[in-house]
Amino acid sequence: MNSHVTTNAAPLPFIDIAAQRARLGSRVDEAVTRVLTHCRFVNGPEVTELEKQLAEFAGARHAISCSSGTDALAMLLMAWGVGPGDAVFCPSFTFCATAEVVPWVGATPVFVDVLPDTFNMDPASLEAAIAVAERQGLTPRVVIPVDLFGQPADMDAIGAIARARNLKVLCDTAQGFGATWNGKRTGSFGDASATSFFPAKPLGCFGDGGAVFTDDDDLVPVLKSVREHGQGVDKYENVRIGMTGRLDTIQAAILLEKLAIFEDEIAARDRAAKRYNAALADVCIVPVVDPRATSIWAQYTIRLPQGVRDDLGAALQKEGVPTAVYYRIPMHKQPAYAQYPSAGNGLPVSEALSGEVISLPMHAYLDEASQDRIIAAVRRALGK
């Protein structure tokens, strides 16, 4: 590792939410003011309009907004009646929310390895995990492919396995909403999809939020019931176990304004990613996008040999360039999840990636001068 230099330049943001806020300016202020004026803070008209526009954007028949991406996942498992004795298959290289919701309903998460190039669920490992679950007496019920770092999982292969094994497909597109697979938007695959509007997401609100997408007409009233305490004809009749899972009207109003500029931001993210790839491909392993896919670039994640990754992060920090590591510990090694089964081979790719990945600043407002500063700092730290 080459010696670093310390810069007096202002630290760069990892995700520049403030730049987007400045661009939207009074539009967000006015949207929030409309809600403050009509005072329908729960289930207001902006919620209905957002759900309509989200469904149109994703190419799904229905969008059901909710309180977070985690709750979106949980609502689907609850609506499908997933419970004790059921196996739900999750990649190990992901954020904990993907698997967290499975024990909530009493089911068993079974961890699956990922592919070394796209970081997404490995279909062959999924087959192995299904066999492990069956040997342990579990009933395979649901697979949750994750669109990690913004790229859709291999929906062709995973969909074929799911159909052959009668599994529900719950697409976790919390990091991938806005990307495409074979020309179709995420949110339009599987039996249903879940996404997050956490502020750091490519389409994020100013708090917590999420949504479920599905083409299943019969699933919609069940999801809405789960979202509202399991209500029946009204909120004082409870026909199932539910939750408080609504999206606040103010957040819906903000998301409507952000959705209006989302296509432009997607294009800007892709331009930034291509510049990174062109400038860094000779010094590290840069991200690979499947030719059938486009990425929303929720994160721009490179790979470096074991040990080099952390040295790079420290060197960049001294130059005012922030980095992040997603994820240092794969799910099957997390203390809270280590007792659950996995595909059976130690999930070597997930374990290797956890020691090699590091993410650089990525957002739609990453100007070329800032990006050039990041690239120069990376190359300097790596002695290139």
From TrEMBL:
Molecular functions (GO terms): pyridoxal phosphate binding; transaminase activity
Record key words, sorted: Aminotransferase, Pyridoxal phosphate, Transferase
Keyword Cell division part of the UniProt annotation: no
N6-(pyridoxal phosphate)lysine: residues carrying this PTM: K201
Superkingdom of the organism of origin: Bacteria
Residues at the active site: K201 (proton acceptor)
Listed GO biological process terms: polysaccharide biosynthetic process
Family named by the database record: Belongs to the DegT/DnrJ/EryC1 family.
Protein name: Aminotransferase DegT
